[in-house]
Amino acid sequence: MVGFNKADDAGVYRLSDDLALVQTVDFFPPIVDDPYYFGRIAAANALSDIYAMGGRPITALNIVGFPAGKMPESVLTDILRGGGEVIEEAGAVVLGGHSIKDDELKYGVATTGLIDPRRVITNAGAQVGDRLYLTKPLGTGLITTGIKRQAVGADLEKIVTEVMAQLNREAAEAMIAAEAHAATDITGYGLMGHSYEMASASGVSIRLFSKNLPLLPEALRLAEAQMIPAGAVANREFMNGRCEFDDTVDGNVQAVMFDPQTSGGLFVCLGADKAELFESLLKDKNIPVHHIGTVEKPGRVQIFVE
């Protein structure tokens, strides 16, 4: 039902009229020093693709590249423990996995979920007049780069680690209940890149409200200090000619919008008549939700930021 033709978060394969599989995979090198939290973040990041489609994860397979002999095996134990706990929290089970010897440590998860084929939420359903919401703050790429360059304190490191390790389960449940028209999760391509994917797949333009964006603490300071990851530079280059910023949008805010996110929030598109329901469902569960944009008729660029 869903392949890779429109840059969706996961593939969907119909088994019957009322049952389909959702499948995806993601893995990467450590972005935090703590192996336990690295495992939690990587697992939450992989599971997010299932949630972004409106699915329910059921199984997971660990994927590991490990520098055997160069790193204590306890590191791998802690990574798998962290990932396993998040997978269990999601209501899924680890069936096994595969590991290889690698010079660089890597970990991730291949995940499978279930979904009603009549209720699949892709990134191609945005409609003119819809509202756009974001469920996690931006700035993880800037902060993790700052961590690597020793420009971030322990308190901020703890905050960003906990945000990245948080599942998008409640946000997905609210999105389904509010009958979202389209959705994706904000990850490596940043808010701008994933907004573009939705606009392009849906044949619309998107207007983003820079003043409504949720930002992690010190994200703007780190942008000003040029803690810009390489992925942000690539994202900005890709969006050249595809987006336009109002003159009033601060340059550091622009940098955050191109910032690649790890285990970011859901970017949810739904009808204005369902906005109050969506907001109330998430507020009842203390999940932050921010109205950051609207869907418009196709314009001269796919993404306009005011």
The CATH class designation of the largest domain is: Alpha Beta
Shape: globular
User: Looking at this structure, what is the CATH superfamily of the largest domain?
Assistant: PurM-like C-terminal domain
Low-confidence stretches: none
Distance between the termini: 36 Å
Main sheet: strands, sense, barrel: 7 strands, mixed
Quaternary structure: single chain
Query: Which class of secondary structure composition applies to the elements?
Result: alpha+beta
Determine the CATH topology of the largest domain. Answer: Phosphoribosyl-aminoimidazole Synthetase, Chain A, domain 2
Overall mean confidence score, pLDDT: 96
Major beta sheet, strand line-up: 7-10-6-11-8-12-9
Q: How many strands appear in the DSSP assignment?
A: 12
Counted up, domains total 2
Q: Give the helix proportion (percent range).
A: 25-40%
Q: How big a fraction of the residues is strand?
A: 15-25%
> How many DSSP helices?
10
Using only C-alpha atoms, the radius of gyration works out to 19 Å
CATH architecture descriptor name of the largest domain = Alpha-Beta Complex
* Element order: H for helix, E for strand: EEHEHEEEHHHEHEHHEHEHEE
